[in-house]
Write a structure and sequence with these properties.
The protein has six helices and five strands, in the order βαβαβαβαβαα. The protein is α/β, with parallel strands linked by helices. Strands 2-1-3-4-5 form a five-stranded parallel β-sheet, with helices on both faces. Strand 4, helix 4 and strand 5 form a beta-alpha-beta unit. It is rod-shaped, with a radius of gyration of 42 Å. This is Response regulator receiver sensor signal transduction histidine kinase.
Length: about 240
Amino acid sequence: MLNAKPISILIVDDNKNNLFSLHSLIEKYFKKVQVIEANNGIIALSILLKRKVDLIFLDIQMPQMDGFETAKIIKTRQKTRHIPIVFLTAAYKSADFQKKGYDVGAVDYLTKPIDTEQLIAKIRTYLRLIEQTGQQLLNDQKEQNVQERIADLVLEAKQSLKEDIVFKRQQIEYLKRELNTSLKLIINYNQIIETQASGLGYNELLSDIEKIGLESKQMLDLVKKVLDSKLKRVR
């Protein structure tokens, strides 16, 4: 079986002998199936609140709460409405009787006394359907997990890219400040040297220093343009 947990079958009948017979037959032919018993509808509903059940064999004629009412309640609950219900009836009933069972959610009927071959065939059919449904749910869950993981990776990538942009912007801002400071110092030193040299009359030296100052200023303007352009792209 594909399910990690064993298939659980709930049998509901107010007759202890019927419960014993049905329980024994199921365990004889389906070793990995877990059988749960309930002798009335109220107990069956209580079990369904606490335990996972995959298939229900439900007697119709029971005191307190008959099979129709029990099935109707089962089908109103979100967690149990998907469970297949096979009605057990003592004898052949009219078409209207059977229609009532289908209307409240039954998927099949079995007449008493239970025919062993018919019981086995029906259980095998429903077990295959249950396993296929379980595998589909498992595949759907895996697909959902994959989609969620992809979404997480995309989010992580966006966050990482955002952090990289912020970091690069900080680097550029730092580089810009450092270059500005360095180049401004060059210009200031050039002005000082120019002033001192002017007093000493070094005309040739002044000419060269003026060129240095001009080149430094042009370099500063160029660096500003390049860095400003980079910053605009980052933003």
